[in-house]
Amino acid sequence: MPPVPGAQTPTAQEQAALNGVTAQFRNSFANFLACLTESRPKNPGMEALYDAKIAALQDPELGSKIVNNKWWLVDTATGAGGRAIAFVAVYPNPAMRAEAWYALQVAKLSLPLLEEFMGAQFPSTVITVHYGFMMGSSGGGGGLILEDKTTYMGRWKPPMMPYDPVICHELSHAYIGHEGLNQFLEIYVYNRLLGHTPAFADWVYLRDYKTLTGVKTGYAAILDVFKAIGLEATQRAYRAVYQLKPPYGQVLPENCKQAFVDQAPEALKTAVRNMMANVTY
Ligand SMILES: [Zn+2]
Questions:
Q1: pLDDT value, residue 76
Q2: What is the CA(166)–ligand 1 centre distance, in A?
């Protein structure tokens, strides 16, 4: 992991990406504030953490502080096909700089793993990270909104996942909206990031797969499919599903389940069909 840089001089592409983020400050902050205000009462015991985020966002000078104090980081990765992918992170507090850099580097290292698995260029040439503004994290289309690691670990308790896979997860949502399918991608990318081979037996991070009992659903069913049909057939299924765009928060459509059955050898089609039948969300 490269050391946290001091004041940076952005490339033209990085500067354009940074300009894009700062032009959106007013809307972004209003949206963050509305989400935090709405979800605060639903999370008893976390009021103080919410209030710290809300107070930062209520500062009318926050946008100009980020610009003037350079509370941002930029970097560039070479994506598939030699494309330059610009990374930009902004954060609301100078104490978050090292953590924001770390998150940016995790995203940067995850990018080629995702492109290779999906067999398709990342859908954007700009990846923006809003770091530390929100409780919880979300992502899609190259925009990552990440809770800062300090806040996340401060409220961590079982069965919450470790922090770093969250970054892989939110980046993967650029390809796949559907949550269960995306949780498999999170597991795959994070294990590869740790240096493990694509073989399931090598993986150390499996969410709570090993302690599950009963019928496997969601990502756990997809892990079973992966174990049955292997890496290349699973990749082909994901590449087909990418074209079908199964959305977040909705039951997985039949044609997406069928994409996995289609890639299974004849002898395993019934078993894979039965496993995929249990993937709903
Ligand atoms: Zn998700």
A1: 98
A2: 9
- Write down all domains in the chain, each with its CATH number in brackets: 12-175 (3.30.2010.30), 182-276 (no CATH)
Alpha carbon of 160 to those of 65, 148, 156: distances in Å?
A: 33, 15, 6
Dist. CA 245 → ligand 1 center (Å): 14
Ligand 1 center to 171 CA (angstroms): 9
**Helix (H), strand (E) at residue 76:** strand 72-78
The closest alpha carbon to 260, from 241, 244, 280, 278, belongs to 241
For ligand 1, the distance from its centroid to the CA atom of residue 139, given in whole angstroms, is 7
> DSSP H helical segments within the chain, as ranges?
12-23, 25-39, 47-58, 62-68, 97-118, 149-154, 164-172, 179-193, 218-244, 254-263, 269-276
Mutual angle of helices 97-118 and 164-172, in 10-degree steps: 50
| Residue 59, helix vs strand vs coil | coil
137 C-alpha vs ligand 1 centroid, how far in Å?
Answer: 8
Residues, CB within 5 angstroms of ligand 1 (ion) = 179
Asked whether the beta carbons of 129 and 87 are under 8 A apart, the reply is yes
> Quick check: 228 and 271 in contact, CB under 8 A?
yes
Alpha carbon of residue 88 to chain centroid: 15
> How do residues 129-184 score in pLDDT, each as one tens digit?
999 999 999 999 999 999 999 999 999 999 899 999 999 999 999 999 999 999 99
Question: What is the 67 CA–ligand 1 centroid distance (Å)?
Answer: 30
pTM above 0.85, yes or no: yes
Instruction: Report CA(173)–ligand 1 centroid distance (Å).
Output: 7
Q: Coil, helix or strand for 173?
A: coil
- SS3 string, 133-159, reads CCCCCEEECCEEEECCHHHHHHCCCCC
